[in-house]
Amino acid sequence: MEITKTEMQVFDGLMISDGSLRKLINENRNSSICFGVKHKEFLEKIRLNINFDWGDIIKQNRYDKRTKKTYVTYMMSSRVNRFFYTTKKKMVS
Question: Could you list the residue range(s) of the whole structural domain that residue 42 is in?
């Protein structure tokens, strides 16, 4: 996967703020990036500005017993890719 300088800068900013890298249990050397945010539009902008192989945006409702309110979270993850694995490895080291 080729990543432009601009995409890498956006990726770095997302990792500092809202992104997380996860290693899949059945995958030895692959990881994906995932987001869980309040605003669907934010994920749509990420999808337009970073050319990764993205999955669908999923709406998830979560009921909080403490506040007795339901909160909406929008989730999106990329397909697995070795780039994310090597990036995660660098961050952990």
Answer: 5-92
